[in-house]
Amino acid sequence: MSDFIPTTRDVLRDGEPLMRVRGLNLSDISVLVNRYFSELKLLFSMLQDAPVQEIVPRLLSSDFLVRFVTEVPGFAAVLISMGCDGLYSEAGCAKMPIGIQMRAIELICALTLEDAGGPNALAALLRNLTDRGFQGAAVGRNGAAKSSEATGRPFLM
Predict the structure, then answer these.
(1) Torsion angle of C-alpha atoms 60, 66, 68, 72, degrees rounded to 10
(2) What single string gives the DSSP state of each residue in 77-132?
(3) What is the pLDDT of residues 50-64, one digit of tens each?
(4) Any bridge partners for residue 19, and if so which?
(5) C-alpha angle 156/78/130, rounded to 5°?
(6) What is the pLDDT confidence band of residue 119, given thresholds at 50, 70 and 90?
(7) Residue 130 and residue 41: Cα distance in Å, rounded?
(8) CB 21 within 8 A of CB 5
(9) Which end of the chain is more exposed for a tag (fewer CB within 10 A), N or C?
């Protein structure tokens, strides 16, 4: 049995490939949510009552993006490092010029959304998981199960 090979795209610098990135998987998203839970909870409260078809436009709004960059400044570096499978460290990604960071994020997001069937499909999937109360046992660092009530977070988070 062979391993799954994700779709990748090259981030270019002066027309030459700088790094190859892939879309995020559930483990990546879970790590991001756990690491930035408080900040993301605050930001995504802006989307709480949005119909599925309005989630992506609201995510792309200047108000949301400005608040996101302000509230979670290290998120971009972590996202890029994950998307290039650690080829560049978080510290290295944080030092990249904004143009390269934005191209990398754009490609990582596009690949994540394409594999999910588009932004509305991904938003619906995530909303469906959380609306159903997908709260099971979360696993602690020592491997012991913790209830979602103990963590205050849904299973995936």
Answers:
(1) 150
(2) HHHHHHHTTTSS-HHHHHTS-HHHHHHHHHHHHHHHHHHHTSHHHHHHHHHHHHHT
(3) 887 787 788 777 888
(4) 11
(5) 20
(6) confident
(7) 13
(8) no
(9) N
Q: How many residues does the chain have?
A: 157
Give me the residues paired with residue 12 across strands. 17
91 Cβ contact partners less than 8 Å away, ≥ 6 residues apart: 77
The residue to which tokens 């999910």 are assigned: 116
Q: Which two tokens stand for residue 102?
A: 């934005």
Structure-token pair, residue 122: 């991904």
What is residue 51's three-state secondary structure? coil
Domain boundaries, the chain: 8-151
Q: How far apart are CA 18 and CA 16, in angstroms?
A: 6
pTM for the whole thing?
0.70
